[in-house]
Structures are given as structure tokens and as C-alpha cells.
Amino acid sequence: MKSSPSLKKEFIFGSFVYSYYLVKQDRKTLSLTVTPELEIYVKCPHKIDAERINVFLKRKWFWLEKQLLFFSKYKRKKYKREYISGESFHYLGRQYKLVVKKSSEDKVSLFRGILLVYTTKKETNNVYTKKIISNWYNEKVDQIFIERFEKVKSNFNYKDMPSLGYREMKLRWGSFMNKNKVLLNPKLIYMSKNCIDYVITHEMCHVKYKNHDKKFFSFLAEKYPDWEKTKEKLEIMGSLI
After folding, report:
1. In angstroms, how far apart are the furthest CA atoms of the chain?
2. Would you kindly state where each structural domain of the chain is located, as residue ranges?
3. 146-240: CATH homologous superfamily?
4. Residues with Cβ < 8 Å from 136, sequence gap 6 or more?
């Protein structure tokens, strides 16, 4: 979806003042997003007047306050990972405790809630440990995403199936490109398989319906019943990782 550069705007409602980023796109509807970093994004059509945006934000004010409160309450201080034993990592919806051990070979294994990293370097060489873990995650991204993509696309009977790719995205878990390609955020590897399936299904529905209109959501509900619950789970987990 083609977007214009985001613009910093202000929304005033009573005694409340909010700063938000306005992103104009090739779309027909408006959407409101609050990130775990408490940043507010409004996505809207290219040709839209300021009053329509203001009315939309007033209508969404209660939800906006609720989201800001939620993220303020559960927002954790960011810290720089040290890649040492004791830190926690997520994989396919589960949390694992990192344990680093000296070994004659480099490898990673999962065992009863433990992310066990064997390293040929010192256990305190966190730069090398990070490299081992990053390579392991990358391998899992390829393996799991292809596996889930093959499963999900079997639910569709498109003549020309889209291809699969990965891209780091700040605000999105997935995207459908005009060149018939589904892009997934590599961070989805932290989420459960049903969350991954939901994102793939969502993007696959865009092959038939480009916009988020009633036909799109009806088609999504057909292909992924109770998608709202999975989406909510994805957003909550994503805010805490």
C-alpha cells in the first residue's frame, strides 16, 4: 500500500491534547493505531479534509484513552539485551529462559522452558552468543513461516498464488504487495502458530479484496473464524515483547 510521509499533528479534545502521526495512503477508510511506545498513528485516504479526521478521533477518543492507559500500565522499561544466562526470549508464543554453556560446537536447543545455547567461545562472549541466537531465529523464520504459509494457502483456490517474503516493519505484522507477494514481519516468530496463521490469512484475503471493507472482513471470517480473538491476542502479546 503506497503511503505518503507521516505528518505530525495535534488533536484536542476538551482538556486533552494528543500528538499523532498522520499517514496518507491509497485507502478508503481511516484507522487508528497506538504503539507500545505510546505513539499514535492515524492512517487515512490521500484526499481527506481535516474535519473528517477530527470527527473520527473524537469518536475514537474512549478507545484511544483505553489503549494509552493499557500501554502505560504494562509498558516495561527497554533495556539492551546482554545475551547472558537468565534473560528471557520468546518463541512461538512461549517464553524461554536463556542458558549459555561451553561446548565443542555451536547449537541451540529448547528444553522445558530453557533456550539452551551451546557455544565454542566463552559463556561470557555475548557478541558471539547473540550471533548464534540470531542465526537460529533466522533459520526458524524460514522453516516455520514456509510451513505455515503452505498450510494457510491450501485454504485458498487462487489461480496465481502469491509468493512469500519477510520484512521488518514497525507497525505491522504483515503486508500484501501489489506484485502478488505476502510479506511477514520476522518478529512473528515470537508469536504462536495460530497468530502467524491469522496474519498470513489476513494478507491472503487481500489478493481478492484490496481494501478493508465489508466484503474483505466477511471473506476473512470465512477463512479464519474468530479472527478477532486471535488478533487481540497478537496485539497484547506484541505489546509485551
Report:
1. 66
2. 7-74, 88-136, 146-240
3. Metalloproteases ("zincins"), catalytic domain (3.30.2010.10)
4. 108
Neighbours of 101 (CB within 10 A): 10
What cell was used for 138?
Answer: 533466522
Closest-CA residue to 202 (of 240, 162, 160, 144): 162
pLDDT of residue 67: 87
Residue 204 contacts residue 162 (beta carbons within 8 Å): yes
Residue 2 has pLDDT above 60, yes or no: no
Exposure string of 159-184, with b = 16+ CB inside 10 Å and e = fewer, is eeebebebeeeeeebbbbeeeeebbb
Q: Is 83 left (phi over 0), alpha (psi -120 to 50) or beta?
A: left
Mean pLDDT of the chain: 89
d(CA 197, CA 200): 5
Q: How far apart are alpha carbons 148 and 2 in whole angstroms?
A: 27
For residue 148 the three cell numbers come to 505455515
Sign of CA dihedral 84, 135, 163, 154: negative
Cell of 220: 476473512
